[in-house]
Each structure stands twice: as C-alpha cells, then as structure tokens.
Amino acid sequence: GENVEQHPSTLSVQEGDSAVIKCTYSDSASNYFPWYKQELGKRPQLIIDIRSNVGEKKDQRIAVTLNKTAKHFSLHITETQPEDSAVYFCAASKRSTLGRLYFGRGTQLTVWP
Amino acid sequence: DGGITQSPKYLFRKEGQNVTLSCEQNLNHDAMYWYRQDPGQGLRLIYYSQIVNDFQKGDIAEGYSVSREKKESFPLTVTSAQKNPTAFYLCASSITAVPYNEQFFGPGTRLTVL
Description:
- The structure holds two protein chains of two kinds.
- By secondary structure, chain A is an all-beta fold.
- Helices cover 0% and strands 54% of the residues of chain A.
- Chain B is mainly beta.
- Chain B has strands at residues 4-7, 10-13, 19-25, 31-38, 42-51, 54-57, 64-66, 76-78, 87-94, 104-105, 109-113.
- In chain B, strands 2, 4, 5, 6, 9, 10 and 11 form a seven-stranded mixed β-sheet that branches. A four-stranded antiparallel β-sheet of chain B has the order 1-3-8-7, with no helix packed on it.
- The mean pLDDT of chain B is 93.
C-alpha cells in the first residue's frame, strides 16, 4: 500500500504570517499529490494538487512543493487570513490503485487575527 | 455544493442493529468512495467502486458492506459486526478511478451508536 505521514497535527499562526504543512509518503510509485481543506462542519474540498513530473505549483497564496527523491511534499500558505483556519489533509495516489487516495491524518490550522 | 448528497445528516443506532447510509450523485461520475473520519485519524477508506456492479475493499472494510447497482448510488451498510461504528462518514465521487481526478465529497453522515 502507501503510508502518508503528515506534520504538524496542529499549527497556530498570526494573521499575515506563513504556514507550512509537510507530508511524506512511502511508495515511490505514487505520482499524484492533492491537498484538501475541510472547514469546520463542512466537507473536504480540493485546494491544490501536484503531479510527480512537477516540482512546484502555485495558486495565489498557496503553493505545493514536491521532492520525489526524498518522498515528501509540502503545502505553503502565505499571508494567512482567519478564513484559512481549517483542517488540511494531504494525500497520495498512484495508477496501480485506481485513483484511490491515501490520506494523511490532517493538520488543524488556526489563524489568529 | 450540489452534485453529491448523503442522508441522513445524523443517525442514531442501537447496538446490534444494521444501518444503511445513503450516497447519491448526479455528476455522472463512474467512481465512488466511502471514508470514515475520526478525530486525529484522517480519512480512512472503507470501500470504493470504479464502476457499476464492481467494488473493492479499502483499509477498514470489516463490518461494512456496499452495493453499486446504479451509477448514481453507492449505499453503505454498517453491520452489527462493526465494533466501533460511531464516526463521521463521508462519501465521495470522481469522474473515473484514476489518479489526477478530483474527488468531490458529500456533506457527511454522523452515526452515533447508543
């Protein structure tokens, strides 16, 4: 299978600061790495993803980096805002397991105004 | 937030009873998934289905059963064999069962065993 480890489990930052969440994966065959955001009481939603042929991807204030050699990927949020407060999940997927996602345990991000 | 629905939102069950959670999607997606969410545990896969009349066990399938008789429906039955069923259950779907396809989640069902 695949084992995805996610750190930290909780993260508190001041509004305007940056936040970084890190994940590692075990299977070198994994080739797709999405990040989902789950606000309190709501369903998870995809916020950004990266494929294994790309090292970095940005979308406004969020970015994801991937290091295939070290088998880790990270989510970077700049200029954090209170509405960024949520649980963030990283995940990994590979072709041989037909699109199923292996999720990390999640990071509770709190942004203080 | 339309497209994939789950019912009921809250469900209470007595020990020893089976209960079925509904999941319906009108996105014309081939693949559907069931996850269990517990605090600090992330999203753990129970069952998934690539296509109608086909499904595979996930990591925690014991005590659960599913069916996929229609493309738009993927009900999950929590049986009395599931030793700790109290949890939040999320259903998801994607266009096809391959990587790179976004999974869209339903609003979830919170099951409580009394």
